[in-house]
Amino acid sequence: STIYVLNGPNLNALGKREPGIYGALTLADIEAMCVAEGARLGLEIVFRQSNHEGDLVDWFHEAGEKAAGIAVNAGAYTHTSIALHDAAKAIGIPVVELHLSNVHAREEFRHTSLLAPAAKGVICGFGADSYILALNALKTLTHPTR
Ligand code: DQA
């Protein structure tokens, strides 16, 4: 089955953006990790990034038609976007919210996620491994073994 891995604003700058917080890997490096993990898990990965909220809304709907689940790092839209919350609710596939950093250990304004109540669950704080953990969660959700 197909999993959409969606990335929001500023994640195109990974590698040079606050590497002390977000790590040295680029988004292309993380895409390669996700494709490799997808192959291991038997999941086809569609990997995208946009700085525009509406693109992410459109991709949620597209995934709802074409995919078995979504792993999303919505960046700062996590904390602001009712539209992404509504999009997650509007589709019939599981959404796993993920973050590179531990948002709960950072500024107060990162402690609230408007997306999380519409998500199946949230993974944060494991750097690029948050993506790998999210894919494994989606594998289990879409191919339950118990
Ligand atoms: C982030 C955390 C967000 O608070 C921030 O706005 C980002 C990245 C993360 O992956 O740690 O852009 O989603």
From TrEMBL:
Known pathway: Metabolic intermediate biosynthesis; chorismate biosynthesis; chorismate from D-erythrose 4-phosphate and phosphoenolpyruvate: step 3/7
One annotated GO biological process: aromatic amino acid family biosynthetic process
Tree of life domain: Bacteria
Active-site residues per Swiss-Prot or TrEMBL entry: Y22 (proton acceptor), H99 (proton donor)
Site keyed Transition state stabilizer: positions: R17
Keyword vocabulary terms for this entry: Amino-acid biosynthesis, Aromatic amino acid biosynthesis, Lyase
Class in the EC hierarchy, top level: lyase
EC number: 4.2.1.10
Pfam families: DHquinase_II (PF01220)
One MF term in the entry's GO annotations: 3-dehydroquinate dehydratase activity
Amino-acid positions noted as binding substrate in the UniProt annotation, renumbered to this chain: N73, H79, D86, L100, S101, R110
Catalytic activity: 3-dehydroquinate = 3-dehydroshikimate + H2O
Subunit structure: Homododecamer.
PANTHER family: CATABOLIC 3-DEHYDROQUINASE
Function, as annotated: Catalyzes a trans-dehydration via an enolate intermediate.
Protein name, per record: 3-dehydroquinate dehydratase
Species the sequence originates in: Pararhizobium antarcticum
